[in-house]
Amino acid sequence: MGTLVIENVVAGYGSGPNILKGLSLTVESGKAYCIIGPNGAGKSTLIKVIAGLLKPREGKISFKGEDITQLRADQVLQRGLCYVPSDRSLFPDMTVKENLRMGGYVMRDSRLVDQRIDELFAMFPILKEKSSQMAKTLSGGQQQLASIARAMVLKPEMIMLDEPSLGLSPKVVQQIFGTITSLRDQGLTILLVEQNARKGLQIADVGVVLDLGTNSFEAPACDVLNDPRIQELYLGKRHQDVAAEECK
Amino acid sequence: MIQIIQILILGIALGGVYALMSSGMTLIFGVMRIVNLAHSAFIVLAAYLAFFVFKTFNIDPILSMVITMPAMFLVGIVYYRLVFASRADNPRFSDLTVLITFATGLVIEGVLAFIFTGIYRSTTPTYAKTSLNIGPFFIPESQLYALIISVLLIVSLWLFMRYTRIGNAIRATMQNRNAAQVVGVNVRWISTLSFGIGLAMAGAAGSLLSFVFTFYPAKHIAWIGMIMCLVVLGGMGSLVGALVSSFLLATAAAYVNFYLGAAWSPITFYLSLFLILLFRPQGLFGKKVEG
Amino acid sequence: MAENTIETNLQTKENAVKVPKKANLWIKRGVPLAVLAFLALLPVFQIVEGTLNYYLHMLMYVFLYVIMSSSWNVIGGFAGYVSLGHNVFFALGAYFAGMLFLATRISPFVSAPVAGLLAMGFGLLFGLIALRTRGSTFIISTIALVLLTAEIFDNWKLTGGTNGLAMPLINLEGQFAKIPYYYYLLVVMVICVVMTYFIKHSKFGLALRAISQDETKAEVAGIPTRQYKIIAFGISGLFIGVAGAVWGSYLTYLRPSIFLTVSLGTSIVLNTILGGKGTIAGPVVGTAIMIAVNEFVVAKLGATELNIVVTGLILIFVLLYFPEGIVGSLKARNRLPSFLDWD
């Protein structure tokens, strides 16, 4: 199982300013990491850089010992690193099944892909139910599940999720995070970016705080959750006596 | 009554060719948000190519598709690479493409006029002059062949888009470019390919039109007027839309032509454009676009 | 404390930002005024010498295109809505004044302002329909407009069909024949360019610029975008209509193949974009250059087909590499000669 090593990455969009300003992070396999931080800190940018959708200006990224910094998105996918974007990014006029098939696009063997899809349908029965419906007809939570399932088609070792709770009701968020936890339990490495810092940290093993383009804090998620400074800055608590969150 | 059905037959025959003409343009818009106002100029270019091989090597215009389609495919790839590939992330991209492609059309017109002069041309295979009779109805043989081939090509395109890996990648890119990138589609390559395919369709249309109509360099203006209306009416980016609007307007124009005169026929197209902009700007099958 | 204050003042002065040298007003104002004076006096030489007819004609061409390109700038440059069919206003003005003259003997010089208002009215009407769409669809609708109008005029008995209408020459000797048209167009041109200046520097102009940058945000900011766009479109047709009335009378014949071609519409756009859309001097500079280029191409290469090739290539080149146009690009690099900085 792989580890992801990010060394001093500097990145920005187009000819714009640097959003990531020398970020370093090591993701150990089999654990769930949650990255929190204010808007504009570079959370989504980091994920895009890792996924191969944005080339970094400086720095190095290695996955399982291999340098993946300059790889394209499809090459990163083939190495077992998949990405679930923040807006779900499904194909609206394709059925759920077709969407999942697109998830296996880089895999040439279509029978393997279909096999995998059947496995995923077993894991997510609601998707099987909706398999021939257009993706745009699904509810927000179902779309998120579909997006996750699509990322799973290639049997990745690690998946990155960008704000999976976005736009979803608390109950649905709970379900989604339950799914993410079970994926972690199955051995996947998870890298999660979350605005909903509390929820994200609750299911993660490690919490990372990203601010102003670099990581400013990294600790077991539980500690991050209970750290008073973090609570004040990112969790919206001020001068309150709050019982420490339950630690795993 | 016979008259009415006869006109319908002629309308449908033309509708097929119009659909072929507009399918390429709407595909290009759907994948890359490029409004290719030079599409008809490329069609005329292909027509001249068909004319050239007809006159020089006596190659039947329908057979010339074997030449015009690959040739235009290559032209499309080169043109896209040269002009558009690096600018795809400009937010005002669509407006820019309108002017650039429009100017390209003029350049093509000028070059063709210089080489071939403005004399009206057409290829004249034997079937260009004959009609087939089916009961009390007739259909010009040339238009029948054009219809059949157009439909075959469009169906092939549809099958390609539905059932091949690349076709699905194109469809995915049309529906959500970012998502396509996420699943590993090389959108830049797919865009280039799509432009090539769109122009290949134009190449086929050119070969067919070479014996259905007469053409001259400036004819692309009249044709782009028509294709624009078809694409907007059908919904920009929708192949189904292009198909439906083509048959609809071709038939309508055929009736208008018969009952009101030839001058009113093109006016039908323009009026339909303005009507659809008034009541449903995104076209029959298009998506509501924000800005 | 007082010492600190003085020190602080000195500090500020040392670190003060260098103010750019004030442009030499003599050059900035002088050159355009001198050119204008020259243009105004040229016909006097014509009266005396009688050999300048060709130059008067060329200059009138320039005046005409400056009027059309400058007017186009209001909707195309300021508001960012590109119209490729703007010569419809030209045709409407020309045909209106021409047909009125043929029916009632009212001189086009008199009816020209009315023609302009009519063109503006039509612009408002068309804007109501077409400005519900944005960007590329709008451009398409303007192309459809000019093609539709050409089709109608080609086939309508009232407008003389493809043969058009012929009008009698005005009653002046050859030497003096061009002069009234010359002055009329010169005056209209100056008024038009000055008008674009005032529009640009008005609140209305600022709103248009906001619309061209980001229409949704402009709407959210409270700008009545729909109304403003329609007004801008109407205004952009006003002087073109006037110019059309005058030009039709000058040519003495009206034909769709003169007024309603796609090439004419494209030239208007090219002039402004080449010169610099959104600037005041842009349309003038672009027009002057394009007319010179056209004369050159026709003289050297003769063929008119190559004319459109050149037009097309220049437009593509400018769009890809210098979308700000000549005046715009020079201004961005701070190299714009002051007599061209009319903004």
Q: What's this, in brief?
A:
Chain A is built from ten helices and ten strands.
Overview features:
heterotrimer, B: 291 residues, globular, C: mainly alpha, two-stranded antiparallel sheet, 15 helices, 1% strand, disordered N terminus
Number of helices of chain A: 10
Question: Largest sheet of chain A, order of strands side by side?
Answer: 6-7-8-3-9-10
Low-confidence stretches of chain A: none
SSE order of chain B: HHHHEEHHHHHHH
How is the CATH topology of chain A named? Rossmann fold
Question: Could you explain how this protein is built, in words?
Answer:
Chain A contains 10 helices and 10 strands. With 248 residues, chain A is an alpha/beta fold. Chain A has one domain: 3-Layer(aba) Sandwich (Rossmann fold), CATH 3.40.50.300. Chain A has a 6-stranded mixed beta sheet, sandwiched between helices. Chain A has a 4-stranded antiparallel beta sheet with strand order 2-1-4-5, with helices on one face. The longest helix of chain A has 16 residues, at 170-185. Chain A is globular. The mean pLDDT of chain A is 86. Chain B is built from 11 helices and 2 strands. The termini of chain B are far apart. Chain C is mainly alpha-helical. Chain C has a domain at 65-260. Chain C is 75% helix and 1% strand. Chain C has helices at residues 2-15, 25-49, 53-78, 87-104, 108-130, 135-155, 179-200, 203-213, 215-220, 225-251, 256-259, 262-275, 282-301, 305-321, 325-332; strands spanning 165-166, 253-254. The model of chain C is unreliable at 1-12 (pLDDT under 50). Classes of the chains: A alpha/beta (248), B mainly alpha (291), C mainly alpha (343). The B-C interface holds B 35, 37, 83, 87, 92, 94-100, 102-107, 109-111, 113-114, 217, 221-222, 224-225, 228-229, 232, 236, 263, 266-267, 270-271, 273-274, 277-278, 281, 289-291 and C 80, 82, 84, 129-130, 132-137, 139-141, 143-145, 147-148, 151-152, 154-155, 215-216, 262-263, 266, 269, 273, 303, 305-313, 315-316, 319-320, 323.
Task: Give the topology, please.
The complex is a heterotrimer of chains A (248), B (291) and C (343).
Chain A: E1 4-12, E2 18-27, E3 32-36, H1 43-51, E4 58-63, E5 66-67, H2 73-78, E6 81-84, H3 96-103, H4 110-123, H5 125-129, H6 140-152, E7 158-162, H7 170-185, E8 189-193, H8 197-203, E9 206-211, E10 214-220, H9 221-226, H10 228-234
Parallel strand pairs in A: 3-8, 3-9, 6-7, 7-8
Antiparallel strand pairs in A: 1-2, 1-4, 4-5, 9-10
Helix pairs in contact in A: 3-6
Chain B: H1 2-32, H2 39-57, H3 65-84, H4 93-116, E1 131-134, E2 137-140, H5 141-163, H6 165-175, H7 177-182, H8 187-212, H9 219-234, H10 239-260, H11 264-279
Antiparallel strand pairs in B: 1-2
Chain C: H1 2-15, H2 25-49, H3 53-78, H4 87-104, H5 108-130, H6 135-155, E1 165-166, H7 179-200, H8 203-213, H9 215-220, H10 225-251, E2 253-254, H11 256-259, H12 262-275, H13 282-301, H14 305-321, H15 325-332
Antiparallel strand pairs in C: 1-2
Helix pairs in contact in C: 3-7, 3-8, 3-10, 3-12, 3-13, 4-5, 4-10, 5-10, 7-10, 8-10, 12-13, 12-14, 12-15, 13-14
